[in-house]
What we know:
The structure is a single chain. This protein is an all-alpha fold. The chain has two domains: 8-110, no CATH class; 119-473, no CATH class. The protein has 19 helices and four strands. The protein has helices at residues 2-11, 16-37, 41-59, 61-72, 89-107, 119-131, 139-162, 166-194, 204-207, 222-242, 246-265, 269-285, 290-307, 311-325, 334-347, 358-365, 377-410, 414-433, 444-462, and strands at 80-82, 85-87, 112-114, 471-473. Strands 1-2 form a two-stranded antiparallel sheet. Strand 1 (80-82) and strand 2 form a beta hairpin.
Amino acid sequence: xxxxxxxxxxxxxxxxxxxxxxxxxxxxxxxxxxxxxxxLAIPAILFIVVPFLLLLVIKNPMVGYFLFVLAAQFGExxxxxxxxxxxxxxxxxxxxxxxxxxxxxxxxxEVKLRKGPVDIYLMFLISWMVISLFWSNDRNQGFxxxxxxxxxxxxxxxxxxxIDSKKNLEKALIVWMLVGVFSGLAxxxxxxxxxxPHVGSSFSALTKWGHPIRSEGFYGGANRLGSFxxxxxxxxxxxxxxxxxxxxxxxYICTVGIMAVGLVTTLSRINTVGFxxxxxxxxxxxxxFRKPFLTTLATFLFIDLIVTKGEILSVYFVRLFYVFExxxxxxxxxxxxxxxxxxxxxxxxxxxxxxxxxxxxxxSIDPDLRLIYxxxxxxxxxxxxxxxxxxxxFLFVGMTALYSYQLYKLIDNRDLKYIxxxxxxxxxxxxxxxxxxxxxxxxxxxxxxxxxxxxxxNIASDNLKNFPKKEVWL
Length: 474
């Protein structure tokens, strides 16, 4: 008996690490049993492969990050439905990434976690969202929204802690670049297959709304695909600027060209305009970028004038005109949605209708209408969190802009200055998109991008002695 107890003690079988691993293994086996009992063979087979992937993620969490970013483009694709729960690839790999990351930290005895440089203002905003649940018109929808925000925060903090060094940042940029090229090629193929046959025969064929004329790739939405391609291209600019040879630079320019053409095929007016504004901003800040920017612009004009005979650019202008004149083919038009949002804001301009309350207010105005977001992040915040919530949001945006500007002015390292400007351009793109799109705090892609941007700021500030460290203790 003493021999057994001494063996257990020597091997530390009851240490926290072994207990955590044991609980995970038992839970995992039970989950597999549930899948098989419900006849879900494909998900069960997938989860049999997961342990091998988990070992890779534990050894190198960047593998999990790559799988998650890759799976994020299949966000609307569901492997199976278990009750009211949809089993999606991005959720599977997010869980895999979280478990693998923390097991890696436990094994390596790393007890420090990093946070974003302006997280205090972000937490103010999230806290106000939670408080607004007390007067929400629809608390069920509010708690659902809060759960998605919590998931987004996990994505945000995992991104910041995985991308914790210049070396890992380079790896993360390669991940975004590879997935961006894959998505861009998928968008181009879809557009060539569905839209090009209509070019020249009927101008209206490209101005109608729907799947035949707007590339969606695997994202389940043209705007989702467009925003991802734009962010991937903006960060690939950094690779162009730091390329050591002309051949490598040409390769990166072609990479951006594929993403830019893919973005154009989505016919997403707001994403394209935001991408162009951010590119102009980067070119203004970095003189070295002006030639690659003009090359990208020339690629777009070539595709438009030669391949589609100028129709894509015409469609962009027509669609922009439709937004402001309320002539969109979609129902309801975006201007009508904004008018509904303004009516909601007038009901309670100071406190708002509470988190998740916007859809119920819209239905009280028009029972046949199903709207969750008002196609504008600013209107969404004002409608649900009131003018106080909107003020906190502007405080967060303002402090982020101030922090990034201070970094830009103080950084001497050339590469870090380049990547900081690209991160600033990404924030500018999201800010411009937020005026007209449903990029809410429940948007997974926003949290992925924001985590990458804040990781860049952390790495840049690590090289400046007068900037505080961004670490917390477990």
